[in-house]
Design a protein that fits this description.
Blueprint: E1 8-10, H1 19-35, E2 46-49, H2 51-60, H3 63-75, H4 81-93, H5 99-115, E3 123-129, E4 145-149, H6 152-164, H7 169-178, E5 187-193, E6 201-206, E7 217-224, H8 228-232, E8 238-243, E9 255-259, E10 265-269, E11 277-281, H9 284-287, H10 294-311, E12 315-321, E13 328-335, E14 346-354, E15 358-365, E16 369-376, E17 391-394, H11 402-405, E18 410-413, H12 421-429, E19 433-435, H13 440-443, E20 449-453, E21 459-464, E22 468-475, E23 485-490, E24 507-511, H14 512-520, H15 524-528, H16 536-545, H17 552-571, E25 576-579, H18 585-588, H19 611-614, H20 620-636, E26 642-646, H21 652-664, E27 676-680, H22 683-687, H23 689-695, E28 698-701, H24 703-711, H25 729-744, E29 748-751, H26 755-758, H27 760-769, E30 773-776, H28 781-801
Parallel strand pairs: 16-17, 17-18, 18-19, 23-24, 23-30, 24-25, 25-26, 26-27, 27-28, 28-29, 29-30
Antiparallel strand pairs: 1-2, 2-5, 3-4, 3-5, 6-7, 6-12, 7-8, 8-9, 10-11, 12-13, 14-22, 15-19, 15-21, 16-20, 20-21
Length: 804
């Protein structure tokens, strides 16, 4: 049959310029079929009805009169929205198909059946409004989709229901809020072969980080069964993140995050009554398994890059995996409408200063903080109960919830992932939201005073009471350039992307122990010697956390590598200095299973810590796991910008022992560009700086420990607090001398302490000494950068004037 007609157009005859004819979704499907197949991107075949067909249906059934009359009643407040929407939809559902349109649709369907070699082929029937997916409006879920539709009669009925869904209550309210004329928006319908994801899996994918706007990652959500549950937020999906710049190298696997979701239910086909789909519980095996393998994750991420490059903007995509063929497909693609529109030069930061106890937690959406009284609503029909400015707490949201969401200060849901309806609409509305808490509706109660914090990384927290917090808006457009590098101290992988817009020169200190303590939680030796653990409670917890890993130690390597990868990705290809673990024995003992492997020391600060652990029989096998994680990070994922740093290295003999152990575990200094730094935090590091520089590529001055050991003061002692001074002349002598000796030896040297943030004169002192870099916390970056710039100007003037 002809590929085009006034009423039906095949996808291969469509392109992105056809939005007025077939709406955003269908135009995009045609664009991908025509231009992205060469990149391997698969789109299920199909066709679209035209806007002309819609208007002919409206005219044939005299529906314009009904639409105008009902909307006039709504505008005059004579009839409520619910009655207006119902009246218009009923009129559409009673409408008869003009014969020529019905013939065109059924003929195209017959052709689709022939092409797929199926009688009564199962198809997806999706709405595509001619005003949707514009740069400033997502129209997320505004119209209906129908899955597993079979036969011409069922198809025409589904198409009629699609037309009616143009006037759901939520769609009417949304168009009013966005200023769209109801009578200038038409509806096209996409009819395409079903992907048998009911037997496989499906989900949503973004070519940008949805919370921070970090544009170098692909975010993928995945769940078993048809994809509607992920879109609507009815399940807690798997989440994967892939670093885009390293995808071009086929030998690398830059998957920097893999989090398994609960995935408690899945949507499948059914033949019961008139319902083509239904939800069923997932099996225990499905809940404990990732939906996608690494190869499939990487394939989808490469498709996302190809689609983004073709469209020239960040994209929001839906994908599906056919459980029969194992093939992946893209079933929808549209521009991302929130992060891509943010003003890049402005950076708003929130910081919670004091807070109540944590009530619930989940995935954070947005980066803001909000306070208010909780309002638990089970259904959008209870809209009258909602109080403006309250914190909306519910199980999940769909487009019917939008009128309530617009009135909320923040949103908290039991279910959903970062690509769920609640997440997408919250971002568009500029509201902080926490999704996938699991039990917020059980633990929070009406009128409870709470704080919703989405300013602490990937995890969002609901705190009891109204927390004290502050906001700061930074203008990044006027930051001065400096010779001295100003880098960041980052520890929390979950918050790493939050700071990507700050023009830092890299990461001067990434603390491995933070990742171990917060993301792994298990002592590495307890994983290695799991079978001999006497603590049964610890064994049960470890078994639960390491589910899915054949070897317990692989859990440590995998989690550590991916946690550090997020930090390395935030500033790649700039240097990221990762300090190997520097727990003290009392801190290690608090890890799960750790008490059995740590000695009890009177002064852990000066005890079995840092380099001394790495070659000791007591911890050597644990250090080997740290080395495996770094090797995976650099060689398998591709983050060669990672520099390894050894803490608390007391002597050159100890340095040689540590470097030897590292080499035995695959980390040979100089191999594949591997640089190894050493912390300068012990007087011996300064006294023997030349000898240490022969063994290491650089130094990082740890001013806290160096002050402690130079002045002989326990930095945690309250009685000696007034004597602890990083600007003491003895400490400054140490710093000045080690900078000079490092430069003589051709080694780089930086400082990663707090002093430059607290004392402008200390930053000036470091610049005067010629330090290569200063690493500070992100909230201190602007102030320190300006102080360093001023100090460099002062030094330059002094050099020009010369001594008197």
């Amino acid at each position: 049959m002809s590929k085009t007609s006034p009423f039906v157009v095949w996808f291969e005859a469509l392109g992105r310029d056809d939005v007025p004819r077939v709406g955003g979704k269908n135009a995009s499907l045609g664009e991908m079929v025509c231009h992205l197949a060469s990149h391997g991107v698969r789109v299920p075949p199909g066709f679209a009805t035209t806007a002309h067909a819609y208007w002919q249906f409206v005219a044939a059934n005299d529906l314009k009169k009904t639409i105008v009359s009902c909307l006039d009643d709504l505008a005059a407040d004579r009839v409520p929205l619910s009655e207006v929407g119902h009246a218009i939809r009923r009129a559409f559902l009673r409408g008869e198909w003009p014969k020529d349109i019905a013939t065109a649709i059924t003929a195209a369907y017959d052709e689709l059946c022939r092409r797929s070699s199926k009688q009564d082929a199962d198809v997806a029937v999706r709405s595509s409004a001619t005003a949707e997916d514009l740069p400033d409006a997502s129209f997320a879920g505004q119209q209906e989709s129908y899955l597993n539709i079979r036969g011409a009669t069922a198809l025409l009925d589904a198409c009629r229901r699609c037309y009616a869904s143009l006037f759901t209550d939520r769609a009417i309210a949304y168009r009013q809020a966005k200023g769209f004329d109801h009578l200038k928006v038409a509806l096209s319908i996409g009819i395409q072969n079903m992907v048998r994801s009911d037997l496989g899996g499906a989900g949503v994918m973004f070519s940008i980080d949805t919370e921070t706007g970090f544009d170098k990652v692909v975010l993928i959500n995945a769940s078993w069964g048809l994809g509607e549950n992920v879109v609507q937020g009815a399940v807690d999906p798997d989440e994967y993140q892939v670093y885009k710049p390293l995808l071009s190298d086929a030998s690398l696997s830059p998957i920097i995050e893999k989090t398994i979701g609960e995935k408690a239910q899945k949507m499948i086909y059914t033949s019961q009554g008139d319902r083509p789909t239904r939800n069923v519980p997932t099996s225990k095996a499905e809940r404990n398994s990732f939906v996608l393998g690494d190869r499939e994750i990487l394939m989808l991420a490469r498709w996302a890059c190809a689609i983004e490059e073709h469209y020239g903007c960040p994209m929001d995509m839906e994908w599906a995996k056919d459980g029969e063929s194992g093939e992946l497909f893209i079933v929808q693609a549209r521009p991302e409408t929130v992060q891509s529109r943010r003003q890049p030069s402005m950076f708003k930061s929130y910081r919670v200063k004091s807070k109540g106890r944590t009530l619930v937690s989940g995935l954070s959406i947005g980066e803001a903080v909000a306070t208010g009284r909780a309002c638990l609503i089970e259904s959008p029909r209870a809209i009258d109960r909602f109080v403006d400015g309250a914190i909306l707490v519910t199980r999940a949201t769909d487009p019917d919830w939008v009128p309530i969401m617009r009135r909320a200060a923040a949103i908290v849901t039991d279910h959903g992932g970062r690509t769920s309806h609640a997440a997408i609409v919250s971002r568009e509305l500029g509201l902080p939201a926490i999704v996938g808490t699991g039990n917020a509706t059980q633990l929070l109660h009406d009128e409870q005073e709470v704080t919703v914090s989405c300013a602490e990384g990937d995890q969002g927290f609901v705190y009891e009471g109204f927390a004290d917090f502050e906001t700061e808006e930074l203008d990044l457009s006027g930051i001065p350039k400096t010779r001295t590098q100003v880098m960041l101290n980052l520890a929390n992988p979950a918050a790493a992307f939050r700071w990507w817009r700050i023009p830092a020169d890299g990461v001067g200190l990434a603390r491995m122990e933070f990742v171990v303590g917060n993301h792994i939680k298990i002592h590495p030796m307890a994983l290695i010697r799991y079978d001999t653990l006497a603590d049964e409670s610890a064994k049960r917890t470890i078994a639960e956390l390491t589910q899915g890993y054949q070897q317990k130690s692989d859990y440590f390597v995998d989690r550590l590598a991916r946690g550090l990868a997020r930090i390395a990705a935030a500033y790649h290809p700039k240097p990221v200095i990762v300090r190997m673990s520097d727990f003290k024995t009392n801190e290690y003992a608090k890890l799960i299973g750790g008490a059995a492997f740590e000695p009890k020391e009177q002064n852990p600060m000066l005890g079995f810590r840092g380099a001394s652990r790495y070659y000791s029989p007591r911890y050597r096998d644990g250090f080997a796991l740290e080395c495996r994680a770094i090797q995976r990070l650099r060689d398998e994922m591709g983050f060669r910008n990672v520099i390894v740093m050894i803490p608390f290295c007391r002597s050159t003999k100890e340095a040689d022992q540590v470097l030897a152990v590292m080499a035995q575990n695959g980390l040979q200094r100089g191999d594949r560009g591997l640089q190894v730094y050493v912390m300068c935090e012990i007087p011996s590091n300064v006294i023997l700086a030349k000898a240490f520089a022969e063994r290491f590529d650089g130094f990082s001055i740890g001013s806290n420990d160096l002050t402690q050991l130079t002045l002989g003061i326990d930095r945690d002692s309250e009685d000696l607090a007034t004597l602890f001074d990083e600007q003491d002349d003895a400490v400054k002598w140490m710093i000045e001398n080690v900078i000079r000796e490092a430069h003589k030896a051709g080694a780089k040297i930086g400082l990663c302490g707090q002093a430059p943030s607290d004392h402008p004169e200390f930053a000036e002192f470091l610049v005067r000494c010629g330090i290569d870099s200063i690493s500070v916390s992100p909230d201190s970056f602007m102030a320190v950068k300006q102080r360093v710039a001023a100090a460099e100007v002062k030094e330059k003037r002094a050099a020009v004037i010369g001594p008197h």
